[in-house]
Amino acid sequence: MVVPRYIGRVSLRHSPLHDEHLALGAKLVDFGGFEMPLSYPAGTIAEHLACRQAACVFDVSHLGTVRMVGPEAFTTLQRGLSNDLRKIAPGRAQYSHLLNDRGGVVDDVIVWWVSQERFDVMPNASNTARVRERLGGDDVTPDRAVLAVQGPAAREIVRAVSPDAASTPRYSVATFEFEGEPCVVAGTGYTGEDGVECAVPSEIAPAFFDALLAGGAQPAGLGARDTLRLEAGLPLHGHELSPDITPLEAGLEWVIGWGKDDFVGREALLALKQRPPARRLVGLLTDDRRPPRAGAAILEEGVVTGSVTSGNYSPVLKRGIALGFVASSTENEAPLEIDLRGARLPARIVSPPFYRLAA
Q1: What does each C-alpha distance from 327 to 166, 253, 276, 330 come to in angstroms?
Q2: Alpha helices of 40-195 — where are they, by DSSP H?
Q3: Whole-angstrom Cα distance, residue 275 to residue 271?
Q4: Is residue 187 assigned to a domain?
Q5: Does residue 239 carry a pLDDT above 80?
Q6: Which of 12, 175, 235, 323 is the most exposed, fewest CB within 10 Å of its CB?
Q7: What tens digit of pLDDT does each residue of 60-112 get?
Q8: Residue 168 vs residues 91, 173, 195: alpha-carbon distances, Å
Q9: What is the pTM for the complete model shown?
Q10: Which domain holds residue 290?
Q11: CA-CA distance, 114 to 92, in Å (whole number)?
Q12: Are 199 and 139 spatial neighbours (Cβ–Cβ below 8 Å)?
């Protein structure tokens, strides 16, 4: 069970793996109302490189799980989310958006279609209540832990713990058992690497986590998870996505199920589709080790043309990388600069994922 911790007037929830994180010397931070590991003693860069070169395990129990069951679950999700579940089937996972009437992204979610009439919707931590309010369902977040095992050696490590979990293909969903308890696994992740995400009952989560560590997975925190997703060019809600940013502006039209008769935000998106958006999301690569930061202005010929939404140092490329919005008229070859507190950092537009540029 997730137990609240009180710091002054702030109540922070705990992952079922909280004691394990403390024993490993993790630096803990408040994230989405949970006290979660930012990094372990090895540090964020070491954890990042371990994921790219071998395998890491991330505790992502702060993510929500809203369970939708029954004969109306499919129809409710079709109406409530942007993507079209008819593209997939039971035993598959799908990325989707919860939109507002203006077409802005209230949250981005992963839907695990576990069985014919059961869907586990995975919102961002701070949006779980909002998603449940819109879609209904049961919040089963306190009942399980979610561990993401990512990296080129991820499946080999998971195989020693559960061959069934390790054999789950990319974007597939399956069930398996650990210590006699039912668990769910999806071939999903947020690092750009292969791997799986396992939802296991809270009571056996520490044993599952310890088994992965014993098999060679390195524990990694939210710091590495963020640098990995940025290198992979993956959007983060509150940065590249928000209620004021549409999927069309973020270059995610593939998340829109245009073939559906109706879903929240459809009419607004149809209207926006008739005219080019004023801005577009791009990847930015610098030749400097200094990391761009969210909110920094992007300039073209000295004129502000946009702003950085996410920026950091890339441990693989050993230089600064960023995602940001620029004017739609900005040419891909245009010489750009990022304003770092008055210093101008030259940058050029590239197509993510960034880490493949090292190949």
Answers
A1: 43, 18, 11, 5
A2: 44-53, 73-80, 128-135, 154-161, 163-166
A3: 8
A4: yes
A5: yes
A6: 175
A7: 999 999 999 999 999 999 999 999 999 999 999 999 999 999 999 999 999 99
A8: 10, 7, 9
A9: 0.95
A10: 278-358
A11: 7
A12: no
